[in-house]
Amino acid sequence: MRFKLAGPMLALAVASGLVVAPAAAQAAAVPATVEVRSTLKVRSAPSLAAKVVGTLRNKQRVTVVCGVTGQSVRGSVRTTNLWVRLSTGGYVTHAYLSSGRTIARCATTAPKGEAVKAKPKPAATVTYKVGTVKSTDGAVNIRTAPTTSAPVKRTVVNGAKVQGVCGVVGTMVKGTVRSTTQWNRLSDGSYISHAYVVTPTLHICPGTPVNPPVTTPSITPAEFIKAAVPGAQRGWREYGVPASVTLAQAILESGWGRSSLSVTDKNYFGIKCQGTSYGKLANGCHVYRTQECTKAGACFTTSASFRTYASMAHSFRDHGSFLRVNSRYKPAFAHTRNANKFIWAVWKAGYATDPNYYTKVTTLMASYKLYQYDSWK
Question: What is the DSSP letter of 274?
């Protein structure tokens, strides 16, 4: 079943595009601008189920005090589970705010409990997953920390086996297998870039920041479309998905390629791995920590594994394959030469829960003249 990326406030990548700093004694206020088509609701808590205590209009300036983890929201600026506390005391999702400054994390006070005597716990056994080094660049460095500036502890050659325990965010590395910011912590405490390792899915290391910094590319809509057209048209030729549909969905779901899934893993559609399986067009899996919330507003942390790709074109082709092989979308393929009917059928089959999803996609198709890229015309 397709999982729509809800957080990019995800660990190991995900995405607001801004760093959330540790809480300070007194966080500095940060100005921000609302980017919304209608109005943005201010709530009493960081959840869409919380009471509405006010509204904000498009382009309204607000003052952000600090940020907290809450319900994941896909907005006009980004997809994230970061909510911000305003100077008025209410909360809004960061998905609809633009701000170029760091937002401090809201301070929390842990309740104090009575001291109790407890038996010491036995030392935990370190479990690991065996990965294989794949390198056409020569020996791969294993370092003391997840950065290319850390001291080299040893080197390994192509084909070597390594024992991966968990994953952390570090320096971006372009390797033989993929380009990624993920580094794998090994059983001896050292680190190797995930860019050179084929391994079963690794979980996030305890203590990994919820919102690591992601460098958002500076790209115009015209540049994004130009880069995306070849992959979208190939997806049409191979699987029958209209290129205009693929382009519009990519724009909407990746925020013009600015989501951290697309920046880090070239995943423009939030397609998940199925266990450790990632199909023929992806090149691996990347585990992210996400924040899920119940309808009652109770939130909890879980993790999800998303596919990684070698290129934008691979992601676009996999999107076509995903729709083609899932029987629920079969009715759409009766309209492979009618883009609007195609995306209508996909939406009605349950591709997205947003009641305005069809309108948003077709508006992008018309506004940016994406129909011209449909290959049969």
Answer: B
pLDDT at 217: 55
Domains and CATH numbers, the chain: 23-104 (2.30.30.40), 129-198 (2.30.30.40), 221-284+291-373 (1.10.530.10)
Q: Alpha-carbon distance 248 to 79, whole Å?
A: 16
What is the identity of the amino acid at 231?
G
Beta strand pairing call for 103-104 and 20-21:
parallel
- The single-letter DSSP state of residue 234 is H
| Residue 260 DSSP class | H
The answer to whether 273 and 1 have CB atoms below 8 angstroms apart is: no
Three state DSSP letters for 34-76: ECCCCEEEEECCCCCCCCEEEEEECCCEEEEEEEEEEEEEECC
Task: Determine contact, residues 291/9, Cβ cutoff 8 Å.
Answer: yes
Strand boundaries in 75-205, DSSP class E: 79-86, 91-93, 97-98, 103-104, 129-133, 140-143, 152-156, 161-174, 179-186, 191-193, 197-198
Contact 162, 187 (CB under 8 A): no
β partners of residue 69: 82
Compute the chain's Rg from CA coordinates. 22
Q: Is the pLDDT of residue 304 over 50?
A: yes
Q: Whole-number mean pLDDT of the chain?
A: 82
Give the residue among 113, 186, 182 at the shortest CA–CA distance from 153. 186
**What's the whole-model pTM score?**
0.47
Q: Which of 62, 19, 66 shows the shortest CA–CA distance to 41?
A: 62
Whether the per-residue pLDDT at 26 is higher than 90: the answer is: no
